[in-house]
Amino acid sequence: MSSIVPVRIFGHIGSPYSRKMVALMRYRQIPYRVTWGDPREALQSLGVAVPKPALLPVLLLPDDDEQPQALCDSTPLIRRLEHLYPRRSVLPRDPALAFVDYLLEDYADEWVTKFMFHYRWHFATDAGHAGNLLPLGYSVSLPDAMLQQMSVMLSERQIGRLGVVGSSDHTAPVIEASYRRFLQAMEAHLASQPYMLGTRPGAGDFALYGQLTQLVSVDPTPRDIALDLAPRVVVWTSLMEDQSGLELADTRWNDPVDLPSTLRPLLNEIGRTYVPAQLANAAALKAGEGTWECEIDGQRWVQSAFAYQGKCLSWLREEFAQLAKADQQRLLGALEGTGCEALLVGLV
Ligand SMILES: N[C@@H](CCC(=O)N[C@@H](CS)C(=O)NCC(=O)O)C(=O)O
């Protein structure tokens, strides 16, 4: 049990990963205290080293000597919290299903976030809204002149980064078509069960929720699309915010060898877009190339190579390599024909 109770979280309401972790803490009934805004000053006053890079959210968790340590990166943080607080786990017990959950989490964190970033900064109307709203997440009482100044700085910085995540006029149709298919797949799936992998949420649900907080309720263009195409997804996002009261006694995880048929279009979507992107990124990193390009959904995609996404692929493959042979086979059976199995080629 952690000696740092409640767990301190530093985040921003406009940060999908911050929202992912706060909702996870609520569902898991882990005592926490959130500080919204820039963590640096608070960490310095606590005498805790600021992580580099200091991405949001930052959590304070005990190190081996039970001293507070500031840590980022939601995916490993979720695993760390599972060790510290075993109740109300978000990781399915069945190892093959746990892998599917991991894949959904990774897809949400690394691909659904492209929808988020693209819609936030690509169209002038959305960028105008985001530029005005996001600085207020640091202080709602910011004087107008300072708000204006921060809005310009933030917008210029983020719009300048669009190309880095692969959003451009050229890739916009691919991203936007993928967002629509993703919403439609999730909408149909939610009509058959309340969470991605059963009647209780997994880490993947929280990762999807985090991105959706912004897509369905902050930025106007993706919000209108979601209201039109996916009302269940819109309401699910509100419900996911606080699942602290969900009684787990009668809940169940899906059987990985008999996944609901409604999950398949979502897995197909991952195989159609995220998988080729991850494979091309990994190949570019291996060849020492700064950019990669490949065909995604029939169109040419070009973007900078990302070491972090290369790491995500290695972690995913490690998860697979750690499975017993029989679980690997059950999993490959479940993924067969979705395109996701291409991530695991050469590992069996
Ligand atoms: N992989 C990280 C991603 C965290 C992340 O990218 N956070 C964003 C906010 S949503 C951030 O801090 N961005 C600041 C920056 O890029 O400078 C996680 O899962 O926590």
From TrEMBL:
Top-rank taxon, per record: Bacteria
Domain GST N-terminal: 14-88
Stated name of the protein: Glutathione S-transferase family protein
